[in-house]
Amino acid sequence: MTSAKHQPIVAPGLPKPAGPYSPGMQLDRLLFISGQAARDPSTGVQAEGIEAQTEQVLRNLERILVAGGSSLQHVLRCGVFLVDMQEFARMNAVYERVFAGHRPARTTVQVSALPNAGLRVEIDCIAYVP
């Protein structure tokens, strides 16, 4: 019997983790991507406002997915963490546009705070490598 091996997803230009974890882990054809913040990895600047933050968070997820051999179109599930559920509709409009018709399973919850000051949204996901 062969045991499955997992490995971290690494590539230049990926967002740096804020703690002792990997941006993503791969197990066979499954990718588990850690929650991403709205910081642009090339400039270190955090996006402002829920729409810009959602866009940057999804681009950070996409960068890690591509490094693992996948894409947003192969995401199976997302977890969305919002500081204010009043921003749900604006976050959701960006999410829908970026996913371009793909509709992964999703859970959205309101949280009392996120790790970075001013961060309004964090998203994680599970995807597969086609």
Automatic annotation (TrEMBL):
SUPFAM superfamilies (alphabetical): YjgF-like
UniProt family annotation: Belongs to the RutC family.
UniProt-listed NCBIfam families: Rid family detoxifying hydrolase (TIGR00004)
Family annotation (PANTHER family): 2-IMINOBUTANOATE/2-IMINOPROPANOATE DEAMINASE RIDA, PROTEIN HMF1-RELATED
The protein's name: Reactive intermediate/imine deaminase
Organism: Corallococcus praedator
